[in-house]
Amino acid sequence: MLPRRAQELPPTAGLPLRWTDLLPGAATLASDLAVQLGTPPLQLECSGTACLLIALATLRELQPQRRYVVVPAYTCPLVAIAVRQAGLELQLCDLTAGHYDMDPVALRAACDERTLAIIPTHLAGRVADVGDALDVARKVGAYVIEDAAQALGARRGGVSVGLAGDIGFFSLAAGKGLSIYEGGLLLAHDPALRARLTETAARIVPRRYGWECRRSIELLGYAALYRPRGLRQAYGKPLRRHLRQGDPVAAVGDEFALTIPLHRVGRWRQAVGAHAATRLPNFLEQLTRQAQRRLPRLHRINGVKVMQDPTGAEGTWPFLLLLLPDQACRDRALEQLWQSGFGVSRLFIHALPDYVYLADIVPQQDVPHARDLASRSLSISNSPWMTDDDFEMICRTLQAMPG
Ligand SMILES: *Cc1c(COP(=O)(O)O)cnc(C)c1O
Predict the structure, then answer these.
(1) Lower Cβ count inside 10 Å, N or C end of the chain?
(2) Which among 204, 239, 256 is the end of a domain?
(3) Half-sphere exposure of 35 (CA within 13 A, CB side)
């Protein structure tokens, strides 16, 4: 294993909070971000998953006879949990080989007149093929929900992701960029659908003082520990403990409760987010410059493929998602890097059918390309705290893996 880095790097580039962010202020997070991103009004909810749940509940009312939601077979387990909590059924779609997008042929096979929604996913900040999902959706009469949980700030043709489909959502969870510890934003280009999303939330999302109190304390902890000196305690130690116990699912935080809470976001957390959001455009630009500078170095490593955006799209760069030639090679690299504090990790551990704890809600299905992505990929943090020397050290380690 590499010698442990003196200070732990986070696996993704979150926007660090400042103490002054915690002072009271105007609760304008959603409206400020809408101006910043150039979107119609954004709807703030208590998590990205809550956004998806509200979206699904809304669409279900519009098309009550449709029960299936088509998702990429390699995505966040919370997506499966939201589908189930909405009282709907998952339909998995395998990926294109060696890519995060759903395979166009598999997608057409997965969709029919029972399909309520298709969820193209902007994984790792990369911009997904929403056009193909729309094409299929229009043919079978389904909706498209863009999962942009990992892609706040990403654009295609100069327009924010989340607006090409019928509904989109961003996550404000810890570790996903701008964070109020847990939060999410819903968007939709059609005003009538936006009004319906607001109505659904007004009906099903209660005020729950206990949850908001808990999230506020967690946000304080996040503000205190999301910095080079605090991350060992908050991230590194639990990571290494879980890996020692042979539990990678817990190590990357893939294990979630099967019921997600719904509650309104309080004014203080909104104000904290609004303060931090003023720094978001510069922060995202800094991350893009850093990623663009580092990508050529990765391309020079034999056998390594880095996920990139399609032409005309400008994603965000919370981390770099890499594919290695095979699982043995990826695992050898992780043996060196995962526990060393350099911000190297894995995205989701499994394809959805392979999480034991999801067995009751995910259909067993052969999804070879999703499994392949899970077995060959690793992530390199794009945190500004990662120095060029750190990055070079990671590249040399990857280079030393015989492909
Ligand atoms: C994190 C994530 C979600 C859920 O967002 P939360 O804010 O954590 O509830 C959904 N989809 C993807 C792809 C994610 O990464």
Answers:
(1) N
(2) 204
(3) 7
Ranges of residues in the chain whose predicted pLDDT is under 50: none
CATH of the domain at 24: 3.40.640.10
Q: How far is residue 285's CA from residue 317's CA, in Å, rounded to a whole number?
A: 9
Tens of pLDDT, residues 100-127: 999 999 999 999 999 999 999 999 999 9
| Helical axes 48-62 vs 77-85, angle rounded to 10° | 40
Question: Which atom of ligand 1 is the closest one to the Cα of 123?
Answer: 13
Q: Which atom of ligand 1 is nearest to the CA of 172?
A: 7
Q: Which two tokens stand for residue 308?
A: 């990139």
Segment 52-80, tens digit of pLDDT: 999 999 999 999 999 999 999 999 999 99
What strands lie across the sheet with 377-381, from one edge to the other?
Answer: 305-306, 319-323, 377-381, 344-345
Q: Which of 183, 204, 225 is the last residue of a domain?
A: 204
CA of 169 to the centre of ligand 1 (A): 9
b/e 55-76 (16+ beta carbons within 10 angstroms → b): bbbbbbeeeeebebbbbbbbbb
Ligand 1 site, CB within 6 A: 47-49, 75-76, 78-79, 121, 147, 149-150, 171, 173, 184
The secondary element (H helix, E strand) that includes residue 377 is: strand 377-381
For residue 260, which atom of ligand 1 is closest to its CA?
Answer: 9
Is this structure's pTM higher than 0.90? yes
| d(CA 1, ligand 1 centre) in Å | 31
